[in-house]
User: What shape does this take?
Amino acid sequence: VIDARSAEVTRQEEMVRSLEAQRTRAEQACKESEQATAVVVANQAGYEAYLAAQQEREALQGKVRERQTLLEKKAQAERQFALADAGCQQLERELAEVAQAEALVLELAAAVQRQDTLEKQIAALERIQLQAEELGRRSEELAAKQAGLLERRDAIAAGLARARAVETEGQAILQRLAEKSAALEQMRTQLAVLKVESDNLRQQSAALENTDAALCPICEQPLTSEHRRELLARNAAQMEALAQEMARLQARAAEQEREITALDAARVRLQQEWATLPREAELANIEEEMAATARELSERTAQRQRLMTAVADLPSLREALIALGDPRGRSAIAAARAARRTALEEELAAAQRRRLEAEVQVETLNTSLAKVGDLEQALQVNAETLSQHRVAYEAVLMHRQSAERLAQRLQELQALEVALAKAEIELSACRKALQEARAEFDPSRYEQVILADRELREELGKLSATINLLRTAQKEDEAQLSTLLQIQAEHSALEAKHRHLLRKKEALETIRVTLKQAGPYVTEAIVRQVSEAAATIFGELMQDHSRVLAWGTDYGVKLMTNGVERNFRQLSGGEQMSAALAVRLALVREMSNLSIAFFDEPTANLDSVRREALAQQIMAVRGFNQLFVISHDDTFEQATQNLIRVKRHGDITIVEDAHV
Assistant: This one.
């Protein structure tokens, strides 16, 4: 209680001191406001005159801005008038040029018609020239092909000669093998006979050595020791001679076997070589292809000569075209310029209207500027007035706020004096209460209360700490429980997913095994389907269904002709091209899901009949939105829907003609 009373006395004393300081500041502020009021009253007339001058200046500045706006509008109107006038003059000059262009179009009409005629003639002859050049390239290709076929024919003829030599050599080897085999069989028979004789002698010698009889087991004469020794010696000599003869025969037999092995290896080698050598049918095919190539070469050469005769006038036509100097281009430029007459006339009329409008606007603005008059003198008088009353104006502005707060500051001073008196009364009461509390104070009881309070506070701190620890442990347990529940849920989800994946794995394993087992059969079926389609396409391309094309599971191409099978390397150039195209077309038709296909030079190495067949076959391909064929010959021109013809001039390739 004493502490509380002492604190209250201290607080009241501080409040009294604070109120006294506030009263002092309030008295000073009242004095300042009274002085400011005197200044404001003394300068009020000058202040009002300054405000009036400011209003007048704002009005004058408004007029200045109005005049500036009028001047800017006048300048803009004058620029518009100048632009419109220049535009009118330019349009009049362009109309004069249009009249000249119209006259030029009429003048060049005949020359343009002549240019069109010459260009059409030149284009037609250039197409013929391209055909002739293509025929020349084709003739060179045919000549090269003929040379290659000649080389191949010579190689096949040499191969056939070698095949006949191999066959003769093989027959000789077979005869020698038969002789060697008969001799070997005879040696083996002799060896068997000698072995029997050797075995008989060995048995006689054994009987002589082991018998105790009085008679000889061979000649049935009395068997003496001398006779036994003679017989044993004779048998030993004969057995030695037989062994030598058998060794000699075995050595000869081994030699015969080695010769037979060498001859058989030579026979196998000759058979392998004979399998790789050409047949008589290949020579006939080559000769037939050479005859067809020779006929085509002759036809191409004659056709090229006729075309070269047709393009003999091409240089003179080009010279005539150059001499014209492109009248169509000049006429097109003049016609484009002449076509602008209507637009230019409309633009000229619009420009004339804009020029008139700008001229009227300039006159109107001049009238408005004359009404505004001269503002410089009025601005100068206004500036002198403002300068004269500026001091009074600034003095009023500086002291007006303080003067306006005089009444408020007086009220605040009165309120502070009342509060100060009240605070002094309360301070006296607090001092009296403090003295009474000090008279009633018991120090020993105070110490007991302090000790009890300290113990209670310590126990409260311990209990608070225990509660905090328990709350922390509870939060940790709750967090751990939530984590465990989440882990349990994730574990359950993972187990379900694991079971689902196991089922999927089993299904996939079953599918994989099934697909693996069915793979070879599916491949074989697809290859067979493509092979059948390729065989049909090949027959249509070659116009000959007696030859059967086969595409095997090893992706190799073979051709069966009259029972003779040839691989891709043994085919002629035209056959190789047709076979490759047939397989690719079959793959495209049977397997592809594309909507667009490109064929680059598909008729190379083919004669005219096969080119026509190939063109029809390619055009018959279905399942595509677009087919593009790039070719140097005109085989596809009649079959295609769209045709683009390009030509190379030096390093530049241009589109010469297009029918789309």
Remarks:
- Residues 2-42+374-440 form one domain.
- The mean pLDDT is 81.
- DSSP finds 13 helices and seven strands in the chain.
- The first strand starts at residue 548 and ends at 551.
